[in-house]
Specification:
This protein has four helices and no strands. The protein is mainly α. The protein has one domain. The longest helix has 35 residues. The protein starts with a helix and ends with a helix.
Length: 97
């Protein structure tokens, strides 16, 4: 418990010594504002990509699983088509007898 107190006192003293100089305060303000702008841009990009993805996923199946949507677009329908053809052929063969 005592070490935390001394660490916080040392951190406070270092902060006071650093920010006592006006140029250091100005540098810190500029760095803070630049970081804030970059974070806001990243958040806006993330929101935009989420909106784009939400607009794409539900149109085919109503789900939000993008990996399944990609798999369907890449050709998973071929296996379904093959299965359907086999089912139709087996129905035709049973109807012939």
């Amino acid at each position: 418990m005592g070490m935390k107190r001394y660490a916080l006192l040392g951190l406070g003293a270092a902060g006071y010594a650093y920010f006592k100089n006006k140029t250091n305060r100005d540098k810190a303000t500029v760095a803070f504002n630049d970081t804030k702008v970059k974070i806001n841009q990243l958040i806006d990009q993330a929101k935009q990509s989420m909106n784009d993805n939400e607009g794409q996923a539900p149109k085919a199946t109503g789900s939000y699983d993008l990996e399944d949507e990609k798999m369907m677009e890449e050709g998973a329908q071929t296996s379904v088509h093959y299965f359907n053809e086999n089912q139709e052929e087996s129905k035709k063969q049973t109807n012939q007898f």
